[in-house]
Amino acid sequence: MQGNYIKLPRVGIVKTYEILPSMPVKNVRRSKRANNWYISFTYLHTIGSQKRI
Asked: pTM of whole model > 0.70?
């Protein structure tokens, strides 16, 4: 999805408060605390090659 929307399995399209980075999502965790729902994301980020001198 784009911007602050993401499609989650079994839930559907969810709007977030923050704009999401355009990286592949590795894992999503949903939790409910004090009658509020929270979503945490784990992203798969690869670092480019580095040259050592």
From this structure: no
